[in-house]
Amino acid sequence: MNNDFEIAIVGGGIMGLSIAYNLAKLGVTNTVVLEKSYLASGASGRNGGGIRQQWTTKTNIELMKQSMDRCDSFAGELGVNVWLRQGGYLFLARSQAHVDKLEKSVKLQRDAGLPTRLEKGSYAKKIVPGINTNGVLACAYNPTDGVIFPWPFLWGYSEKYCELGGEVRLRCEVTRIERKSEGFALDTTSGKVNCKRLINACGAWSPEIAALLHVDLPTHPIRHQICSSEPLKACLEPLVSDLQAGLYFSQSMRGEIVGGINLKDEPHTTEMKSSLSFLREYARALTRVMPGYQSLKVLRQWSGPYDHSPDGNPILGEHPDCKDFFLCNGFVGHGFMMAPIVGELYAKHLAKSETHQIFSDFRYARFSENSSVALETFNIG
Ligand SMILES: Cc1cc2nc3c(=O)[nH]c(=O)nc-3n(C[C@H](O)[C@H](O)[C@H](O)COP(=O)(O)OP(=O)(O)OC[C@H]3O[C@@H](n4cnc5c(N)ncnc54)[C@H](O)[C@@H]3O)c2cc1C
Predict the structure, then answer these.
(1) Which domains does the chain have, with CATH numbers?
(2) Measured from the CB, is residue 146 less than 6 Å from ligand 1?
(3) SS3 sequence of 137-168
(4) CB-ligand 1 contact for 52 (6 Å cutoff)
């Protein structure tokens, strides 16, 4: 078994696998993905599958326009159906502050060529029959946003990556990292691995991996809960988000209403427990917006960890004081949708030293330099 690699990627979530696949596509195949559990065991297998281009910064809007294209071509390129459904995203604003935020972001989105429209609250009824718009001052709607089914995305990347010559090692936890004169020696639960370059793609567990190299990452985990209902016949086109409540919900291709809500006191942990208070808050907020869902039955409830960063933006690129140690962390609640484009740009960065604005905007050093990037404030949940 080969244990010497050009690049080792720790974390078999969507970020690690997207980088690995895109590297292989560029011909860099002496790589390995080390995953302590199974594919989709982290946040990547636990999310709501929402993909949207409605963001508040130019960078994120542009990134997501490109990521949406990659989602669209994913099935053709990787031969896996990811159940992409572009039913749009509908944001509801109940306060003037939220209306102002939507106004600014819709302008940026329209300038970027997106068909997002800002309308009076009652317009939402045209998009979602049965919605209660009492108290809704305005809404923003982009019909080209959508939802996907997360798991096939991971399977698709993993299978194609292995077909191209890469290797995924499951149940292989990295427990110790030693810095060598060139590269790194890793202890894992299935033996030793050496690599020249190391990528931390561990999502909410990233600070733990960084700490093995005495690197302090300014991200931290926060639990985020979500649930899924019994299936209904197709009745809801967009993903709906009530900004004030921190609520979001959409209908999956199987008919389930899948949604979550931001709870203020969620623990800062990677533990994936569920709470009754989540169901109470979610049900209250959901039935306020959709009174017809009063007797909807919840079939499944689960949680996963958000990987929070101080400015709501990721941390990307080589660590300034730890040569050949690369970071791909801090994606809060939008890492899944960004992975297709971020993985592609990251692979070009590693394989061809190509630079892109995201590697300067989202560099680790911005926190110590006090040179902040535009704060992304449109994280739901
Ligand atoms: C409930 C919920 C809803 C969400 N909804 C959305 C959404 O609608 N749209 C969206 O775009 N994003 C959403 N997100 C966020 C999104 O899921 C994440 O940003 C994204 O999945 C992060 O991917 P990742 O690969 O960085 O991390 P993960 O998927 O968490 O993968 C990290 C992996 O690293 C592994 N690992 C950890 N430590 C080690 C170790 N020592 N050795 C080896 N492996 C290790 C873990 O087992 C894990 O599999 C949601 C998240 C949650 C929790």
Answers:
(1) 4-46+151-219+311-369 (3.50.50.60), 85-145+221-306 (3.30.9.10)
(2) no
(3) CEEEEECCCEECCHHHHHHHHHHHHHHCCCEE
(4) no
